[in-house]
Amino acid sequence: SALGGSKQRNANQPKGAKSQVTLRMANIAENSSSDQMQACKKHELYVSFKDLKWQDWIIAPDGYAAYYCEGECAFPLNSYMNATNHAIMQTLVNFINPKSVPKPCCVPTQLNAISVLYYDDSSNVILKKYRNMVVRACGCH
Amino acid sequence: NFTSDNEFHSSFIHRRLKSQERREMQREILSILGLPHRPRPHLHGKHNAAPMFMLDLYNAMTTDGDENRYSYPYKPIFTTQGPPIASLQDNNFLNDADMVMSFVNLVEHDKEFLPVRRHHREFRFDLSRIPEGEAVTAAEFRIYKDFIHERFDNETFRISIYQVLEEHSDRESDLFLLDSRVIWAAEEGWLVFDVTATSNHWVLNPGRNLGLQLALESTNGESISLRVAGLIGRSGPQNKQPFMVAFFKATEVHLRSIR
Q1: What is the DSSP string of B42-80?
Q2: Size of interface A-B (CB pairs under 8 A)
Q3: What ipTM score was computed for the predicted complex, to two decimals?
Q4: How many CA atoms lie within 13 A of B113 on its CB side?
Q5: Are B244 and B193 in contact (CB under 8 A)?
Q6: Which chain B residue shows the shortest CA-CA distance from A31?
Q7: Average pLDDT, chain B
Q8: Within a 10 A sphere around the Cβ of B170, how many other Cβ atoms?
Q9: What letter would DSSP give residue A102?
Q10: What are phi and psi of B52, to 5 degrees?
Q11: H/E element, B231
């Protein structure tokens, strides 16, 4: 389960993360033993422009919570897996013929836009809207 | 190394990233932002007028709850002829914009042409770095007018803005009048001029971008320096510097080039 919203994220951010590229991926897997794979769901992923030391050209935001989808889309899919009708069919065929037919994929089903305000090389300021940046929901497809 | 000292347990395999991998990762994030490389701006003072204006727009866009409807945060002063740009005051251009860009003023000359004494100030903006496939939907030139003590409150000036069409070494440039209005000596705030058509012309014909000219006259038609009416230039405070802002809409679907 994701750890609170991104606001809480900033408070817990460790000071001076070691690597220059800090792609913060956090996923508390309650039952993460390899044999019992987790169901497809949304996990936290925070892209920190601040930790990337890009704040000399990015005015806002400090970063954004992108999230990602991870988990198993296995038979029986049940109704809460946000699956398409065909994904259910795909699991049936995979169930029968697992060697050659793949399971459906755990992917974003709803994505949000964000806006970023930054300087270009000539110190002009650009405010741009970027679509499909933040995962709102995951599902089997 | 994603989260070596991070207190969250992660199901990811922890390993140290090679510097090449780190660079590749940064390049991927830059490509998400549509940037070929990391910009290196020479000025990044966040107290300049343009960045402050753009930060207001950013905050309006991101904190108005529904990210799709936001209100234009910057109210220009309305002169005697009513709102300078009625079309720009309704918010559709802001809601519809995929991108907004403010441009720093590259050059400024306060000139005086003789024998007929004509004061004017020239401004230049570089609109050549606009990403492909973006069309200007609205554009404004903004200049700040200070309150001026030495003049009578009810005194008025006529301010006119021109697009420079052709420059000549021996005589005045050929000009095209964009807008002209009366301002009060006692007024203070941002004067906003609609330069949408001019900006589109410059985007399509970068070579024809010869800048703008601003001229001021007293009520009896005498040409006077812009400083007299309190119009701020490059020597003025950073948060009152003149700038241009343009709103863009993508004209085509961006297909990422094959790598």
Answers
A1: S---TTSHHHHHHHHHHHHHHHSSSTT-------PPPBT
A2: 134
A3: 0.78
A4: 13
A5: no
A6: B11
A7: 77
A8: 4
A9: P
A10: -65, -45
A11: none
